[in-house]
Structure formats: structure tokens, C-alpha cells
Amino acid sequence: MSVVEVEILRVILEEATQTPVVLLREKEGSRILPIVIGHAEAQAILIALQGIQVERPLTHDLLKTVIETLGGRVERIVIHRLRHNTFYARILIRRDGVLYSIDARPSDSMALALRVGCPILVAREVMEQAGTPADEPVEF
Q: How wide is the angle at C-alpha 40 spanned by C-alphas 61 and 29, nearest 5°?
């Protein structure tokens, strides 16, 4: 599968419904990929983007700690499929030389990726289906 690396540009609220949307931007390109996410995941992503320290671990902090405590390392996340307006992602974890691919929502995957500092990748096919040029308005 051919992929493109992206970065989180920002999290916005869609005006009409006040639904959070994360905007991903190609690192070596000009397309933007909008993905609708939940409010809790938006908060988790924003906390990580802003470097806010919380007193007790949030779910994504806990997941990071569990993976690392068990000797694993998150290598990357991949948003690999778009079907019926739903995005699908995988978290790729390496432990003892074995690569594990775990099904996950893109929003949870991104929140984890920000905490561990791993790349966020999007299948080229998904970017071609749902990405928009950066100079055009983003539609939901």
C-alpha cells in the first residue's frame, strides 16, 4: 500500500453542527484531509498538541504506558481505508521483533501518535478520495 505522511494542521468545529473535525495536511504535498471526530478525542488531540500536562493519565496516555511497559513501541499509524464515509486506521506496534497491526479509530490513533511521536500515514487512495487542495475550502 502506498502512503503519504501527514501532520495534524488543527482541530476545528464545523459551524452548523459544532462537530469537531481534525485537519490533516500532507507533509510533502498540498492536500488537506478533514476527518470528523468525537468531542473527547478532539480534546485528547488538543491536549497533546498544546503540550498540556494532566494530573491523571487520560486514556491515550494510559495506552502509551501499557504498550511501553509491555516492551512495545508504536512505529506508526495508518489511516488505510474510507468506506461509507467512515475512516479506518491501524496502529502498528513492534514488540520483540514482531509487528502487530491493531484496528483503531483514526481519532484515537492520532491522539496516541502525538503522545509517542510516531508518524501519521494515510493511504494514497484515501487521500485521493477525500483530500482537498489546501487552497480550496474544506467541505464536510
A: 80
